[in-house]
Amino acid sequence: MPIKTAYEILNNSIIYFQGEPVGTTAACDPSPVAANYHECFIRDFVPSALVFLLEGRSEIVKNFLLSVMKLRAQQPVMEGHQPSLGLLPASFKVVEEKGSEKLVADFGERAIGRVIPVDSAMWWMFILRAYVIATKDTELIESPELQEFIQQILDLYLRERFESSPTLLVPDGSFMIDRRMGVYGYPLEIQALYYGMLQTGKELLQRTHGDNALISRLNILVDALRAYVRVHYWVDRERLNEIHRYHAEEFGLHVVNVLNVYPESIPDWMDGWLDSRSGYLVGNQGPGRVDFRFFTQGNLLAMLFGLATEEESQGIMNLFDTHWDDLMGEMPVKLVFPAVTGKEWMFSTGSDPKNVAWSYHNGGNWPVLLWPFVGAALRTGRFDLAERALELTTERIKMDNWPEYYDGRRGGLVGRRANFYQTWSATALIVAHSIMESPESRALFEKFTFYND
Ligand code: GLC
To answer: With the CA atoms of 317, 220, 174 and 161 taken in that order, what torsion angle do they form, in degrees rounded to the nearest 10?
Structure first.
């Protein structure tokens, strides 16, 4: 029984602090490949939290939310900079010191490449929202401590710097893809999470404060971000045709090719890739730069959060259907398609051997993506695709001992350096099965109107 084993992995992964459960380790592998897989990563805890909330085990989620919130004080201060209390760590662990326990956070200062976890606070807000929906514990968000923290998060993420668009500018490796992969700038996954976070912040603050200047600002930004992503990230056959025939180097306020995209930048693999039923949101957008790669997590979150329109969401599901082998393969779901190879791999990853073509972040298949995939499939009425994905995964992943990721064009090989008993591979399967059985539980991560209901 794979689901039973998945629960065992989840239960074995629980981290206790002073006798209370506060999180889950990234993997339960007795000899993990990576040194920090015994830590609790904020993003990895997301499907764990969903399982706990679906099961009515909300105490651990509350402990997690409060513990992580306090960890923000541990942020190391870089010389010449001020700490920002809206930033959350990538991960944390329990350390024993002189007979007492301590929670120790990592804000990237111990991580490979010292990458900054921009997504952590956004996932934290996602979990907070799911917690409130599941438990109706509105007292928690009304507490002054929580209110202050939400405000601090928004202060950081709304801070003005060098903005020329409503999207959020981030460095490389600032989210699930936490290695150099040419995903700096305005990656889609960050924009989808940002959209979700702004909506959540709005919901939570409006509840306690009513309308004020911040809420109006959030309203304007949410609308602008949604419109911008829909115009600049969406590509279908019609849009591709438009880009193909673009005039570049236009001056002035009222031009068509606003971001000065050169038609020559359309990659060869796009030729014939989109049929008249399919489309998707591109991976990144910036001046003169479209990253045409298909990034699964960003597209799925955009569907779940309503950043993509209903029609676009249907187009994205059609793309999965048409390119099933490429995007789902033997073990769903491909993280990014296609992989970069040769010189492109050298330049964009810094010749990272873990990220060679069709491995790990560079075109590997990640079972954790199953929960948002099934969520998005149900949302768009594509029950058939959800079922097909689960059929491929359920038995096989248990036989393979719950790897973190798979390699190969079709995702048929266990990832070369994958950990086994990866917690989010197990919890994603549980969440996917649970929402298939009771689709209404998708309310935990959909529809931004919970307090109006
Ligand atoms: C890898 C992944 C990252 C994940 C971590 C723990 O670094 O890229 O997204 O949070 O492993 O599983």
So the answer is: 150
- Bond before 187 cis per omega within 30 degrees: no
Q: Is 352 in the pocket of ligand 1 (CB under 6 A)?
A: no
172 CB under 6 A from ligand 1? Answer: no
Query: What pTM was estimated for this model as a whole?
Result: 0.96
Residue whose Cα lies nearest atom 6 of ligand 1: it is 26
d(CA 47, CA 429): 9
Dist. CA 170–CA 168, nearest whole Å: 6
Residue of 433, 434, 419, 445 whose CA lies nearest to 13:
419
Alpha-carbon distance 196 to 245, whole Å?
Answer: 34
Per DSSP, the three-state class of 380 is coil
Could you tell me if the CB of 43 is within 6 A of ligand 1? yes
pLDDT digits (tens, 9 = 90+) for 319-332: 999 999 999 999 99
Domains, the chain, in order of start with CATH, read 136-446 (1.50.10)
What residue spans of 112-187 are helical by DSSP H?
A: 119-135, 138-142, 144-157
Output the CA 36–ligand 1 centroid distance in Å. Answer: 10
The residue nearest atom 9 of ligand 1, judged by CA position, is: 176
Q: Which atom of ligand 1 is nearest to the CA of 111?
A: 7
pLDDT given for residue 449 in this prediction: 57
* Alpha helix stretches (DSSP H) within 266-413: 296-304, 310-322, 324-327, 342-349, 370-379, 383-399
∠ CA(60), CA(191), CA(271), 5° rounding? 125
Q: Where are the beta strands (DSSP E) in 28-90?
A: 40-41
Model confidence over 37-66: pLDDT tens digits? 999 999 999 999 999 999 999 999 999 999
Ligand 1: residue whose CA is nearest its atom 2? 176
